[in-house]
Amino acid sequence: MKEMAKKFVPVRAPAPWVRRSARVVCVLIALLALGPRRLCAGPPTQTLRGEVLDQKDAPIPEALCTLTSRILPPDGVTTSTDHLGKFEFRGLQPAEYSLVCAAPGYQPLRRPLEVTDVPPPDFQIVLPPEVVLHQTVEVQEKAATIETQPAAPAAKLSSSELTNLPLVEQKFKAALPYIPGVIRTPDGRINIKGVSESQGQLLVNSAESSDPVTGSQAIEVPVVAIDSLQVLKNAYDAQYGGFTGGLTTIHTRPPSDQWNFEAQNIPPNPRIKSGHLVGIADYNPRIYVTGPLSANRVSFSEALAYDVDKQPVRGLAWPHNEIRTHDFNSFTDLHVVFSPQHLLSATANVFPLTRQYADINSLIPQTASSDYGQRGFKLTVTDQYITGSGGILTTVIDGMEFDSWGHGQGSREMLVTPNGWDGHFFNNYERDSQQVQLTESYRLPRLKRWGKHDFTVGIDLINRDFDGDSQSRTVKVLRPDGTLAEQVDFLQVGTLAAHNFEASGFVADHWLPSERVALDLGLRYSGQSLGGASNLAPRLGVAYSPGKNEKTVFRGGVGRFYGHVPLLAGTFPNNPTRQVSFFDDAGNPEGVPIAYLNAYGDLGSAGRPVRLTGFPHVSPYNWSWSLEADRELHPRVTLRLSYILSRAYDQFTVNPLAELASGPTLLLSAHGASVYKEFESTVHIRLAATSEWNISYVYSRARGDLNSFEQIYVPFEMPLIRPNAYSNLPADVPHRIIAWGRFKTHIWGIEAGPLIDYHSGFPYSPVDVLNNYVGAPNTQRFPRFLSLDTKLSKEFRLPLPIIKKHVMRGALTIFNLTNHANPRDVYYNVTSPYFGHFVGDQHRFIDTALDVIY
Q: Which residues contact residue 462 at a Cβ distance below 8 angstroms, ignoring those fewer than 6 apart?
């Protein structure tokens, strides 16, 4: 038992961790001390409450109400009415607002509002019986202006959609593939614009929340705490930086001024085999509590998520076919009202996780897999102050500690055979990292000259550090008859460490030259100690509505985006040296072993790779442009057509070069590239207050260098590294149809949330006995993928003494309802007797949930 405990939950001396944690907290305190603002006794922020009625004074449930203002996010804040037609917006600071409420069968209505120091009275909105509904709910009594139209609108999932749609796991990343253009490959990687999440960025309440070492989006936020989840493929606002892929943003639910409690997924799901109960399949309780600590002054919320998951992997025999995950997530949010013009919020996130047998599939048994673990915390303080002239000063201070590790199941040699992996995974690593971020921005009072201007200027400072080690054991490549063909030995332990300080400044202008045209102009300047010292990223976006009724909106934009240099790349030469030996059929060595020196590389004068003595001080970047047209075809139907072209440059790639003039080298260079093209057609249909559909067709192509740094080293190092090639990327899916919706059935009022996903098969590459490509890589494909999932939910009450006054919600989720054979793996080695056979079919399975809403 002691060995098992050490194996799955590594124990390390706490002193360094405590010292690093204390350092992060001290930096946060010091940064806060730069600009303290005195707690005053001014009036609190306000809560806006109302109800939506028809002309007969009957409540309209699930009407959409959107509140917009200069001090709110660009898309505003949206909520829906409850079964009594009531809604509320909390934590509003004094300012001018615009409220739009709409529902199918009624004409949307706009009401200008002004929030002052005096609490606003509750009010009613009566909707006339006429349907004029726009997709973004930005419709009003007269023709809407283009003022609130962004040049590149985000694809957005609200908290209610996260609750009602079938998620394969209760994680925000499980919802991302619902968004057109977002692909999740069979290995679990999220890809936006054709590239993996490591090249993207995750913002939680405006603070960067990715793994500082690799860029992976490994930091979870409980789904119950999420107010909205958005993906921007092209973020033309100059305030955004640090990515060359897509931008994912999470806004969490603000604390309430009334006590509320919600418990989700209370009972565990049983594991049943052959009609017998054999244990627990998963247990995923969630708890959310919120309320005031000091009336009208201090409020807080706490979201807790606990997961015990045993995910079966088809293609392996039970019970040795499970990925076992055990994690805990706590997200605490505290809001302090200093005055109507001054609001401070502080959040704390804790996210320990262990995942046993993390990378098993039909060709990788548990014994040959790797475990993964992480622990850490994240503290974020956001201070917003509205000046007397109407300017908005926002300060975000963020500190994070993120430690991760990975290791195999033992110390045996790893075997790579034509039929898959055997032995024990070869690499163990530990990484300890810290990140501190300071963002200061100021939105100037609106300037009315040649139209309207909303100028924003700001700075962004980020400091990252990490240290760790990497240890690897022998990898043997076997022929079909079991004889040794190749052996990879590792000559030393890698001691890893890297540091990067990045400073950025930006200026942005949301310019409205007329009521029908909006321009987003921006410039972002950045420099990194590990990457490029001087990077200039211009941005331009435009939105235009040609008609007075604003039923058609055209959008377009172009921009340059610089990404972060992964810290793991900054310590590349310190990785263990690979020594490769080859053997003939009789087991005799062929030549002398080849030791590949880890080194940075560049292109010489003749265009050939050469070694560098230091890190290539360049930053990966991306050029993207897009065109889009939105059209209201019918009061209940809107259509969106869009095209994106994205080209990435100076991406880090890894390439083994045996005949380099300076000697055999495993070369890390910044000359990788990729290109992504996407055409999207999306129809949004809203048939009733509780019935809507989103149907999208996406044609896309993604090509680039296959040996990208994150593909080789994230989340686990690859045992064999082939020569680099340029071809279809792993997320290249030319054709995809994704449709999801929600509607109430006529059976006991059950609400259904169906999802249909149909797309081209993922690419794969045949290889020979030495795992080198046979033919052009990634030109073969898996069969087409088809899955029909649905979630059925019903709210009810139970006549029990403790909970009879509270609403219960039961849910049944069915995945792959048609039981379509969706293979996850393929025998790709041409010397295997099973070459070309697809395995790991994903079967139909069921999940249940029971929630209590106080």
A: 208, 242, 435, 436, 437, 438, 501, 502
Is the C-alpha dihedral spanning 442, 443, 445, 450 positive or negative?
positive
Residue 223 phi/psi, 5-degree rounding, is -60, -35
Whether 291 contacts 300, CB under 8 Å:
yes
For 789, list phi and psi in degrees, rounded to 5. Answer: -115, 155
pLDDT digits 0-9 by tens, 119-129: 888 888 888 87
Q: List residues bridging with 339 in a β-sheet.
A: 342
Q: What is the DSSP string of 701-766?
A: EEEEES-BHHHHHSSS--SS-PPP-EEE-TT--SEEEEEEEEEE-SSTT-EEEEEEEEEPPPEE--
User: What tens digit of pLDDT does each residue of 89-130 get?
Assistant: 887 878 888 888 877 667 778 888 888 877 888 888 888 875
How far is 389 from 502, CA to CA, in rounded Å?
A: 32
Does the pLDDT at position 16 exceed 60? no
CA distance 501 to 437: 10
What is the pLDDT averaged over residues 581-599? 94
Measure the CA–CA gap between 615 and 617, rounded to whole angstroms: 6
pLDDT in tens, 245-293: 999 999 998 898 889 899 999 899 888 887 888 888 899 999 999 999 9
Instruction: Say which residues have a Cβ less than 8 Å from residue 466's Cβ, sequence separation at least 6.
Output: 212, 213, 431, 432, 433, 434, 496, 497, 498, 499, 567, 568
**pTM of this structure:** 0.86
448 — pLDDT class (breaks 50, 70, 90): confident
